[in-house]
Amino acid sequence: MSSAPLLDVRDLHKHFPVGEKGLFGAHKQLLKAVNGVSFSLERGQCLGLVGESGCGKSTVARAVVGLHPATSGSIRFDGNELVGLSTRGWLPYRRKIQMIFQDPYASLDPRQTVSSILTEPSKIHGLSKPRERKLHAMQLLEAVGLNPRHINRYPHEFSGGQRQRIGIARALALEPELLICDEPVSALDVSIQAQIINLMGELKERFNLSYLFIAHDLAVVRHICDSVAVMYLGRVVEQASRDEIFNDPRHPYTKSLLSAVPVPDPELERARERIVLEGDVPSPLDPPPGCSFAPRCPWRHEVPDDRCNREIPELVERDGRKRSCFLPLAH
Amino acid sequence: MAGKNPKSWDLGGKNFEELASEAAKFKGESLWQDAWRRLKANRTAWWSLLFLGVFMTIAMIAPLMPIPSPVFLDLQLEPQPPIWPWTNFGTGGFEPQYWELSALDNFMVDTRVAIFGDWQTGPWLGTDGKGRDILSRIIWGSRTSILVSLAAAFCSLAIGVSYGAVAGYLGGRIDNLMMRVVDILYSIPFIFLVIFLITIVNEYRAELEDNYGIDRETVFYVVIGAVYWLTMARVVRGQVLSLRNQEFIEAARVLGASTARIVFVHLVPNVLSIVIVYLTLTIPAVMLFEAFLSFLGLGIEPPKVSWGILAVDGSEMVNPVKLYWWLVLFPAGAMGTTLLALNLLGDGLRDALDPKMRGRD
Ligand SMILES: Nc1ncnc2c1ncn2[C@@H]1O[C@H](COP(=O)(O)OP(=O)(O)OP(=O)(O)O)[C@@H](O)[C@H]1O
Ligand SMILES: [Mg+2]
After folding, report:
1. Model confidence at A125, in pLDDT bands (50, 70, 90)?
2. Model pTM?
3. DSSP 3-state helix, strand, coil percentages of chain B (rounded to 5)?
4. For residue B275, what is the domain's CATH number?
């Protein structure tokens, strides 16, 4: 196994032109949805990408699967650069990187049978003969815990959880190495969430998968992920192993995020100190000049010279964990 | 690289052939089948559909039916009022007199002569000022209406749907450009264009027909087709715009599907229900338009028949001295019933094909 990470994202930017067009066709404003994101994912691992709504998680995911081109930066898959690839250049990676979507009601074509949904991937890539395709589609259904006899049904004849399983089966059809999961359970009932999460855990072992798992439910992330990257306003502020993040968060934003999660143990829950942040998340149209978290950070005055408001902290690795903050590590 | 375990895929010990044959029993119901069932449950729409089916069949087999020729002149002075079938069910004297018919129609006429000889129905709906049978003229005229509708429907489907779907899916500059073209075509005053074109064709008709085989009627159909796809393109584009960011389209893109595949396999089937509804509501407009142009003398020319020409004939005979009501009532009735049936069917289809995603609640 090579030492390079399976997925290595560096300084990724994705800016959306918004607002009315100016006189000469140029857009007036840039929405910096992703503004310098870096993280890496080792093969066989599950990396959780967390952060509050609107911080750019989906935008990162969509850039990684090539649904929209990155403005700048680098996305390396198994050492190969994906940014700037043409549609044709993307084709071989389509088989290796697949995506699981959030809304099981919108992610399946309502006019197609499960059979055509699951055979489409191999049709597109010209992989096998029709009979083998059908067999494979049934195997896929079996693998995600659905009855292969229901292969001729339509999506609307399944429940939300079952549909999500079909979506997972479709993503598995090309035998990918990396699955990008954009909040795969947040649209489901809580009872079904656990089933889907367990299924994803099983499949990961069975097919040697790696996951980029986007969620804002930290309990789910804690359950399935090996490491966690925390995003705030278009940037990753901290990446470390799951236990390090949950037991010993080092970035002020991670601390505040975790302090908002209730702890099951009532004694610990009472002892838990809550960090209540002042103000709102700044607009991605006009992000702060320095650290994007600085305007709300309770510790910003502990860094001399108002540095937090002037300079953007790099995501630097120390002691095996990455953090972008000017505060001393032991803070 | 960690290799895949080939045993990873299995069917849980079940046999594929067995499963496949069992799966055939669990056939799902597509949204189309579901819509069809709901359409059948809708009485009004169902009867409209049946009526239109019968109407189409009669129009198609018109040359086979033992009705008088629509252009056979009888030298009498006055239009004959309707004679009910039980008083005069049929007479002899059929003459296979038509304009230039297609080979298939000629074959049907020959078959008819072989079966019925010169027997023909009596003037059940009366005759017009030149002694021509009204029933026969209505039936033959409906063929023109159907032909015009088909031309418009075909252009709407073939050009309008793909044009709109491609523009909507590609978006951006290309969409802008494609829709500006539609806007420009829209802004041309259509009726002037028709008058202009047909006048030109009239001027040079001999040359056009001799050198290029283009007659006035062809121009007429082409012009109608060229106009009626525009609205369809707009409707489809709007639908596709709202569909193209749906996750199932993104899923297809992540799988590597080509633009053509996304447009024709995923987008078009999902807008087809709106297309069908829209089509059933456009066709009456096209039929009316044909009648209108023929009425003005810009469409179908005698001796051919169309409902517009029947209207001309009828209106010419309107005078205060004697009321030839059958010349106006029956053609108008046929046209009105057809348009009503089409509209009712369109409404029924819209209800049946309700595009809301089902199973959500
Ligand atoms: N196509 C687009 N055009 C313009 N702005 C966009 C576009 N897509 C996303 N954005 C903006 O980018 C920002 C980040 O959006 P994104 O969907 O990545 O957030 P998210 O972290 O996934 O949020 P959530 O948890 O709600 O899914 C938001 O402010 C959003 O409005
Ligand atoms: Mg999102």
Report:
1. very high
2. 0.84
3. 70, 0, 30
4. 1.10.3720.10
